[in-house]
Specification:
Elements: E1 13-14, E2 21-24, E3 31-35, H1 37-44, E4 52-58, H2 63-73, E5 79-87, H3 94-109, E6 112-119, E7 124-131
Parallel strand pairs: 1-3, 4-5
Antiparallel strand pairs: 2-3, 5-7, 6-7
Protein name: Methyltransferase FkbM domain-containing protein
């Protein structure tokens, strides 16, 4: 059986739940279309048994809305590696650190293990998880 590999890069707004919606963009006449990750994975990989190699998320401050919804949806089990770029600000409330930690624990419970961590700037960190 042959496998087919291809790379798709798409810059999209992710919906924090299972609904498609529009949110205001940078100008009053612009809108971002937010798409559920389950819809994107089905578009590029309709076979639900197929594992997708890598998901890269630059959440740009929207971590609170997105990560919880992705973990609840179960869609992350379709990916071999997940790379997050997170923004953690100096002086961030302890509640926010606890929330990140609980998400990472939930990822581990779903079969992912932290592979790499990189501190990029004062506020940005890259974290890569791999499914074993």
């Amino acid at each position: 059986m042959s496998t087919r590999e291809f790379e798709v890069t798409e810059v999209v707004g992710l919906s924090p739940d299972s609904s498609t919606r529009k949110v205001p963009g940078s100008r009053w006449s612009d809108y971002w279309s937010l798409t559920p990750l389950t819809q994107l994975t089905t578009r590029y990989s309709p076979n639900v048994q197929q594992i997708i190699s890598l998901l890269t998320l630059d959440l740009d401050g929207s971590e609170w809305d997105i990560l919880g919804g992705l973990l609840d949806s179960g869609v992350l089990k379709r990916f071999r590696q997940i790379s997050f770029r997170l923004r953690i600000w100096f002086g961030e409330e302890n509640e926010n650190y606890r929330r990140f930690y609980s998400w990472f624990v939930r990822l581990e419970r779903q079969g992912f293990h932290k592979l790499a961590f990189r501190h990029l700037q004062e506020s940005a960190r890259d974290i890569v998880f791999v499914s074993l």
